């Protein structure tokens, strides 16, 4: 057998590294989804809170702050879900730093951000979640909300909600996520 041409292995190794970097970027950085989505863009396209409560559609309330790293991390995931479901579900952004919303912070039990409250079409809160969640789990919850499901697949059930009020969190079954291992959604940035 003839020896490989000089530099052939180097070119192959370089191409392999480039392909690996491209694959990582496409799967972890949201390439092709909404890598540039920000809280400001989500807020600009959000349905006003009062409109959401009056239009007869289910709603996702996101309580956030501009300085919250986890809120910024979730922005591309929320943008993808909004693109898929904005005709059927209201996406509402509520900035926790605005005193106008202090009553809603209490009403929806906001004790960490990002906090997501999932409201049925009749405005009753079906479930809530706090922190970063995998895109697949987030979209599954929005899809179930849109479909009027009795419960959401990846959420903490609220007391008195649905047929089984004692159900615990089901996030253990959620698809894996790769958030920063040291990140704490209650650390606020």
TrEMBL record:
Residues 15-147 form the Thioredoxin domain. One of its GO terms (biological process) is cytochrome b6f complex assembly. Residues 165-189 are annotated as: Disordered. GO terms for cellular component: chloroplast thylakoid membrane. It holds the Pfam family Thioredoxin. Residues 165-181 have a biased composition (Low complexity). GO terms for molecular function: oxidoreductase activity, acting on a sulfur group of donors, disulfide as acceptor. InterPro entries: Thioredoxin-like_sf, Thioredoxin_domain, TxlA/HCF164. This is Thioredoxin domain-containing protein. It comes from Prasinoderma coloniale. The lineage of its organism: Eukaryota, Viridiplantae, Prasinodermophyta, Prasinodermophyceae, Prasinodermales.
């Amino acid at each position: 057998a003839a020896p490989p041409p000089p530099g052939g292995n180097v070119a192959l190794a370089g191409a392999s590294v480039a392909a690996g970097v491209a694959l990582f970027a496409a799967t972890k950085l949201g390439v092709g989804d909404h890598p540039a989505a920000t809280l400001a863009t989500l807020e600009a396209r959000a349905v006003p809170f009062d409109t959401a409560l009056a239009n007869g559609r289910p709603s996702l309330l996101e309580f956030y702050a501009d300085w919250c790293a986890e809120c910024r991390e979730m922005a591309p995931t929320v943008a993808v879900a909004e693109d898929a479901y904005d005709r059927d579900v209201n996406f509402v952004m509520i900035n926790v730093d605005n005193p106008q919303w202090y009553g809603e912070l209490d009403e929806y039990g906001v004790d960490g951000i990002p906090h997501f409250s999932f409201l049925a079409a009749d405005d009753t809160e079906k479930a809530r979640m706090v922190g970063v969640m995998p895109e697949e789990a987030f979209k599954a919850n929005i899809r179930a909300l849109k479909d009027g499901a009795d419960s959401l697949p990846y959420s903490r059930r609220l007391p008195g909600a649905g047929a089984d009020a004692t159900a615990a969190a089901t996030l253990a079954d959620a698809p894996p996520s790769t958030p920063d291992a040291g990140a704490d959604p209650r650390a606020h940035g």
